[in-house]
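S1.2 Input.
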Amino acid sequence: MALLCLPASLAAGADKPVDPCRLLSPATLETVQGSRPTALVPSARKDAILQSRSCFYSLSPSSQSVNLEVLTAAGSTDIRQFWKQRFHARAEEENTDRDDPPGRRERAGGEANEHRAPPQPVPGVGEEAFWVYSGRDGAIYALQRGYILRLSVGGKANEANQRKRATELALSALGELMRP
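S1.3 Output.
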């Protein structure tokens, strides 16, 4: 895996509109997922914090499909601060939760009952990346420049295989995203 390096002049922010349906080639998808896309389904949404553009790469069988989302800051949001809160504040919170009385988290919303592994660092992908696994599927989140990329892969495979395929596709998508 290669770490994407950028000149300092490009490292500041997301300065170009992104079409996530152009970030993964049919050949790359076929190599990694074993199938070429049968359809590309773009979507977009925006709220006060983030703008999201995504592409659902429909593959056959459908269980092999890939979803790629590119997030950028909306308004005055600092994407790096959002990243820090999402991936680095959790460790501090979990350390604090160890001191909580038993059952407090369950009463506070049931979050402790969900099977969620903590985000796992994925070295060599973007500036920083994490693998998040829910127990049945997972996604890789990668920070690069002013973008957060979220990529999830389908397929009946164990977590290690899902993570490997998601990492390969994320590296390819980040390479395209950073292309001048």
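S1.4 Remarks. The mean pLDDT is 81.
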